[in-house]
Amino acid sequence: MTKSRANKVIWYIANRELVDQLLSARFLIIMVLVVCLVPLAVYVGLQDYKSRLHDYDRLVSDKQKIVASEAGKSVSGEDNPWTPENELTVFRAIRRPDPLSVFIRGLDGALPEYWDFTPTGIEEGPSALRPKRLSDLLGQLDMEFLIRVALGLLAILLAFDAVSGEKEMGTLRLAFSQPISRAGFLTGKLIAGAIALLVPVAAAFLVALLSSKIFGMESLPADGSMKLLLIFMASSIYLLCLYSLGLLISSLTRSQKTSIIVLLVIWVILTLAASPVATFTAQAASPAPSRHIIESQKKMLDDTIRAETEKAMGAAYKDVTGIENRMSYGDFLKNKEAVLRRIDPILSSYVNKRRQLLTEIQQEADRKENRQNRIARTIMWLSPATTFTNVTTDLSGTGDESRMAWLEAVERYANRLGTALFEDPPQITVRLGGMTGTFERRKLPSVSELPAFASPKNDVAATVQGGLPSIMILSIYTVVFIIAGFAAFIRYDVR
Prior knowledge:
mainly alpha, 2 domains
């Protein structure tokens, strides 16, 4: 058979298969279902985004008011109980919700609204999305869910009888009574499936964009359209991957009943069970304490060594001034240089000891958490469906890569702020008997004199770099399933 004739046969098979798939009840039902659910998903996502954006604006406004007050003009680095505001709020890193969470919610609502910075380290604020109903805890309806579950189901429903079904009907033997190769036959099926699955994906994204405009969403960020295009391409690869898996199973079974049962079991495992299994396995393999527990441990430790340090500085204050029955700022100013010469080594020892002990606690917690995340992500890569979840959330800026980028930015700022303020405190508290006194070691800095927090980059280059490993793994799955499908069909008994 000449090359041109072989191509004509392939396109004839692809055209016939494509028409059958587009007109099939399973295709029409699932496509209508997805297209009808997309506006609902966008509406829910948009309302959630607007609510979190309102909270963000409120937090920013509150912080600006405090920065503009006396608390921003002279920063002590402590939350003094007798001041009306929490002075540490002037350092607060507030996270703006990502606009693409309207379409791909990911972890955007689960991350903290803000992070506070204290002498003992980082304190997380509440999650941006606080559940109010049981349904809030049982999953979320967004584009990722609809494509992964609903269109993923469509992909295997279109492929389960592509070979075994034609064998049962006798059309497979009839087809090979004509001059056509097995590779050409399966290639036609593959092309038809790929084109058929592009239709509902394109329709879903188009309806999502139109719905967002109708429901009053502001324009997408500058790189939002490019990110959505990348998510569309990743969605197409994912559906082709499941369709190729369906062709493989259909080429390994002798009846379409066996094929659909096997594929449905695989679909349940890959799309519904893989994610919780990854989470539970990671938690069992590497238990990690919550950040709130770590924060409590660090605060208790700091309170202990801080009390000891304040008493030691009180004893030094008494030795220098010779005063033990009172503590006044005037007495401190008269003997400031001598008092600081005695107190500074004690303070330096306290700061070094605090840094060492708190770093050990944090590093151990980070090690366990990072190991837990690596285990969970590795297990998720074993499933095309959960790999697709990683891809879409990373590309939209609402996934694990974004979470890590925020945590790294917060950690960098905590280190910079610690060096500039907390490890060289401008004021000290001295305890003498039952008395305490707070004195200035140096001029209190203003917010403008201290480092400013820089949010992590979330541009196209950063998101592509974060999603690239998952894209490669998803592509490898697709290629492997296609090759295995061709290999199985070559040995398939068409009689």
